């Protein structure tokens, strides 16, 4: 089974040549950990703070940069992946999970701030976003956020 993972850059000069490989690795790890056993399509846009700020303002009416944005195509139940509830690509039959956008600028700053570096931070943000695509959320400080954090920790392991 091969997932179709597209990683593109919004503009040149963003640096971090290893980012696309790390993102793809983290997406595959998260999908495997969540029992996603069908080919899926995930699109990722790598950008900077300016680019993610514009999208955050347009789609969420939040006028600031953030680290990652997730745009799920389906309404899924966290921890209970159901391929029947997913949109499909008409040509290939692959499941359309959604899109994500990651600010490489914010990722580098947070990796430094938290002391674990760019590589771990981009993988963490990617896993976080995949979980959103699979129905997890953290809108409140209660059980849903705890469930999502537990899954992030389990998936990341020693990454």
Report on the structure:
The chain is α/β, with parallel strands linked by helices and 159 residues long. It has one domain: Collagenase (Catalytic Domain) (3-Layer(aba) Sandwich), CATH 3.40.390.30. 43% of the residues lie in helices and 19% in strands. It is built from five helices and five strands; from the N terminus they run βαβαβββααα. Strands 1, 2, 3, 4 and 5 form a five-stranded mixed beta sheet that branches. A hairpin with a 6-residue loop joins strand 4 and strand 5. Helix 1 packs across helix 4. It starts with a strand and ends with a helix. The mean pLDDT is 93.
Key features of this structure:
159 residues; alpha/beta; Collagenase (Catalytic Domain); five-stranded mixed sheet; 5 helices; 5 strands
User: How many helical elements?
Assistant: 5
Estimate the global geometry from the Cα principal axes.
Answer: globular
Return the average pLDDT rounded to an integer: 93
Question: Tell me, what is the CATH class?
Answer: Alpha Beta
CATH topology descriptor: Collagenase (Catalytic Domain)
Largest sheet: 5 strands, mixed
Structural class: alpha/beta
CATH architecture, by name, is 3-Layer(aba) Sandwich
Find the count of extended strands (DSSP E, 2+ residues): 5
Question: TL;DR?
Answer:
With 159 residues, this protein is of the alpha/beta class. It is 43% helix and 19% strand. Strands 1, 2, 3, 4 and 5 form a five-stranded mixed beta sheet that branches.
Topology record:
Layout: E1 4-9, H1 19-33, E2 40-47, H2 49-60, E3 68-72, E4 87-88, E5 95-103, H3 104-113, H4 117-133, H5 143-156
Parallel strand pairs: 1-2, 2-5
Antiparallel strand pairs: 3-5, 4-5
């Amino acid at each position: 089974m091969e997932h179709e993972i597209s990683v593109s850059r919004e503009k040149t000069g963003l640096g971090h040549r290893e980012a696309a490989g790390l993102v793809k690795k983290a997406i595959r790890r998260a999908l495997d950990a969540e029992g996603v056993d069908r080919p899926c399509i995930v699109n990722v846009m790598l950008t900077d703070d300016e680019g993610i700020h514009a999208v955050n303002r347009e789609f969420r009416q939040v006028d600031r940069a953030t680290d990652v944005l997730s745009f799920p195509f389906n309404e899924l139940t966290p921890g209970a992946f159901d391929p029947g509830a997913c949109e499909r690509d008409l040509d290939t039959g692959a499941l359309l999970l959604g899109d994500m956008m990651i600010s490489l600028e914010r990722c580098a700053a947070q990796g430094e701030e938290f002391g674990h570096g760019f590589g771990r931070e981009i993988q963490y943000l990617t896993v976080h976003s995949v979980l959103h695509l699979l129905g997890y959320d953290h809108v409140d400080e209660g059980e849903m956020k705890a469930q999502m954090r537990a899954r992030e920790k389990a998936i990341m392991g020693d990454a």
